[in-house]
Amino acid sequence: MNYRHDYHAGNFADVLKHLALCELLRLLTAKDKKLFVLDTHAGAGGYDLGGSRSTRTGEAEAGIARLAAAPRAGMPAAVSRYLAAVAAYDRKFGPPGGDGPRRYPGSPRLIRAALRPGDRFIACELHPDDALALKREFAGDRAVEVRQADGYQVQKAMLPPSERRGLVLIDPPFEAADEFERLSRALRQGLRRFATGCYAVWYPIKDETAVADFLDKLAAFRLLTMTLRLDKALDADKLGTCGLVVINPPWRFEEAMAEALPWVAAVLGGKSSVAATPASAPAPVSPP
Fold this sequence. Notes:
Number of strands: 10
Strand content: 15-25%
CATH superfamily: Vaccinia Virus protein VP39
Radius of gyration: 18 Å
Number of domains: 1
Strand order of the largest sheet: 5-4-1-6-7-9-8-10
Number of helices: 10
C-alpha cells in the first residue's frame, strides 16, 4: 500500500481505530495514576476533510460524516463520546458552520485531549512532511513530545515506562511487504519489557492468511480482536475490511466495544465482530 493518511482521514478504518482509542483512554485515565502513551505512527495530527486529498477519495463521507449525521436516539455511549471528541476538535480548529466535521483529529489529537496533568505522551512519525506538520500541530505544547523517528525503535527504547502504566498505539502505514512480521516482532519485544501494558494495533485485512498468522503469534496473550467491514467499498481496489487487536484491554472495554461496533457497522452499512481470547500461557513478567 502507498499510504498518505490525508487521503483516508475519517474513513471507516479511522472510525474503528479512534472509537476504540477514545474508550481505551477513558478507561485508562479513570485510575488516579500517571499514564504513559506512545503513538508509534502518529501521522500529521489533524486533517482537512475539505481538502483536495480527502475530497478526491470521498472516504470520510462513508465514515465519520455518515456517523456524525446518524440519529442520536439509541446511540451507544462510547460512540457519543467519540463523536463529541471529533466535534470538539472541529470546533476549535475547523471553519465555522457547515454540515458535519470539516477538520478531523488524528490519534495524537485524541490522545492529547484525554491527557491529565502528569501524564506523558510521545508521538512518533517517520515521514518528514507529516513529522513537520505534527510538530507544528503541537508547537509550544509541553505535554506532547514529537519525534521524527521510527516508532518501533522508540518503543524498544521507551519500554517499560517509569509510570508503570501505559498505552502503546501502533498504526503502521503498511507500505512494507513484511509489515506483519515487523509488527509481531515489535509486540513480542514490547511485551517482554512491559508485559502489563495495553497495546492497540490497527491492521488492514486484505490477506486473511497473513492476518491469521499474525494473530496466532499473539495467542499467548490476552487479546480482544475487532473487525469492521463495509458491505460495499467505494471502489473495488479500496480497503473494505480492517481490524484492531488490543492486548491487555482494560476492564469493561470489551463490553463497550461489543455494544458500540454493531451499531456503528449498521450505520456505515457493514458488519463487525468483537472476540476475546484469553491468554494461552502465563504472561511474561516485566523487568523491574
